[in-house]
Amino acid sequence: MNAAQFAFVTSVFTLGGLLGSLFASRVADSRGRRVTLILNGVFLGLGPLVMGFAPNITALVVGRVLAGIGSGVVTVVVPTYLAEISTVELRGTFGVMNQLGIVCGILFSQVEGLYLSTLSGWRLILFGGFILALVQTIFLSFSVESPRFLASKPGGYNAAKRALEKLRGSNEVEEELNGWRQVASEEGLEGLITDEEREHQSNEEEMVIESPAVVFHARNSDENFNVWKLVKNLQYLPALKVLVLLHLTQQLSGVNGVMFYSTSILAKILPGMSELVTVFISIVNVIMTVVSAYLID
């Protein structure tokens, strides 16, 4: 594999990530966060498996795209899922733990590479990725759906309450549900609507709901809301500016170049030590992620 082929196989992963992130939120909003992550196990497992058995560059490209799609879905859905199942006090920590898992995974794979980056061993690293995807999918099947997602559906109060009770290990969850109601009201939503309140809203569409029923119902909601409408809506402009600036800063910092090509770049400067230096970079990455978790909370 020459330098151009290596660059293409490496970078095509981001194309898969783009594809996965584009449809992830729509699937998660319609099918649920947990179900989306379980289904995504197909991409996370199939990608490494295809690469592990790849007889040529074309198969490697296909595997990289599949793995990229899975990673794109994870990037969108996992932070949402963690934020919705965690308590307010631990939400920041849970969010950083997601990133900590990513950087620890990178570090672990690079340590593997120190011993398995051979003509016969590199495929074992990829098979390890398949096993991890399989284990994740199995454990997710025993997890609970996001209570907030369940509460957003007509008649979802009881299901949301049961899920929240499992997560908190207690039946005393009414206070937290009421907190959701208050937040929804402050954000311009009608919040948690019970049967009694629904009876007084004659202009609302009739709903078939179980008792006590509860939904998040947005005033003047637009079911066809998309990226273009987000860009044009001045209400979201400040947050959108911050979001774009943060991502531009991160990408223009060259972090992806460091993570993807550090070994080959350093090999020209420090022959024989490039792999160890790359591992050291990942160790620093892990340490700073831990520090970030402490500072955020």
Short description:
The chain is mainly α and 297 residues long. The chain is 73% helix and 2% strand.
Question: What does this entry look like structurally?
Answer:
- It is globular, with a radius of gyration of 23 Å.
- The longest helix has 29 residues.
- The chain starts with a helix and ends with a helix.
- The chain has two domains: 141 residues, Growth Hormone, Chain: A (Up-down Bundle), CATH 1.20.1250; 75 residues, no CATH class.
- The chain contains 13 helices and two strands, in the order ααααααααβαβαααα.
- The protein has 297 residues and is an all-alpha fold.
- GO terms for molecular function: hexose transmembrane transporter activity.
- It comes from Racocetra fulgida.
- Its main location: membrane.
- This is 7737_t:CDS:1.
Name the descriptors.
297 residues, mainly alpha, Growth Hormone, Chain: A, two-stranded antiparallel sheet, 2 strands
Largest sheet: 2 strands, antiparallel
Strand order of the largest sheet: 1-2
Helix % is: over 70%
Number of domains: 2
Radius of gyration from CA coordinates? 23 Å
Q: Enter the CATH topology name of the largest domain.
A: Growth Hormone, Chain: A
- Strand residue content: under 5%
Name of the CATH architecture of the largest domain: Up-down Bundle
What is the CATH first-level class name of the largest domain?
Mainly Alpha
CATH superfamily of the largest domain: MFS general substrate transporter like domains
Give unreliable regions as ranges.
194-222
Query: Mean pLDDT, rounded to whole units?
Result: 80
Shape: globular
Distance between the termini: 46 Å
Number of helices: 13
Number of strands: 2
SSE topology string: HHHHHHHHEHEHHHH
